[in-house]
Amino acid sequence: MDIQNLTRIYRRGQQQVRALDGLDLTIDAGQFIAIKGRSGSGKTTLLNCISGLDQPTSGVVRVFGDAIGAWSEGRRTTWRREQVGFIFQSLGLLPVLSAYENVELALRLNGVGASERHKATLEALELVGLTKWNDHRPYELSGGQQQRVAIARALAGRPRLLIADEPTGNLDSKTAHSVLALFRTLVRERNITMLMATHDTLADDYVDRVINLSDGRIVA
After folding, report:
1. What residues have CB less than 8 Å from 189, skipping those under 6 apart?
2. Where are any strands of DSSP class E within 27-123?
3. CA 28, 184, 86, 41 torsion: positive or negative?
4. pLDDT band at residue 13, thresholds of 50, 70 and 90?
5. Which residues are CB-neighbours of 185 under 8 A, at least 6 positions away?
6. Which residues have C-beta within 8 Å of that of residue 126, sequence separation ≥ 6?
7. Residue 92 — very low, low, confident or very high, per pLDDT cuts 50/70/90?
């Protein structure tokens, strides 16, 4: 992953807000990266530009060798569906669906066939240690188990890139350690590149590298 002179400017009324300010960054494939900084430092904007959810004002974002900013929105959408998994602090699990159904639904919406959906869903739930809880709905699961369902949902499509925005923000320290250890294992075993925006100091013990942002720039 190669990012060159990345700038993102938003308009807020008559003011310009420089969320990213000429940022340069290189990340090797298969790394687990923590992106840190205060609220407003540019963490989420950086993740959105890398995943193609947002377009930079200027600069180049290359992911796995491709300059995704040059693509049409349709091509970026297809690329995200096929190669990117997302995990958010607000998990977005549907309360009326079981753990299995929450994971399977994401594949169904992406047009995956029934047999392949079933196999991928069971494999993803097994990876996160939730096979015995397949039929449980979110309210029947602990906070850590709910987070693991969200991780399984992100993994089911076998992404090359995993984007996580404050994934341990609502977890106690014991559960956060467990989730971070799971992330590290998945990155190693599946050769996934993972970018995680976080305030959690626990993450430092699990990631390959910490990138600190302030006012849209990388700081030491």
Report:
1. none
2. 32-36, 58-63, 66-67, 84-88
3. negative
4. confident
5. none
6. none
7. confident
Does residue 193 or residue 91 have the better pLDDT?
193
The pLDDT confidence band at residue 134, using thresholds 50, 70 and 90, is: very high
Cβ contacts of 144 within 8 Å, gap of 6 or more:
171, 175, 178, 179
**What SS3 state is found at 220?**
coil
Amino acid at 117: R
Reply yes or no on whether the pLDDT at 220 is more than 80.
Answer: no
Question: Please, what are the domains in the chain?
Answer: 2-92+159-219 (3.40.50.300)
Distance CA 15, CA 161 (A): 34
**Separation in Å, CA 197 to CA 38, 39, 96, 218:** 10, 11, 29, 14
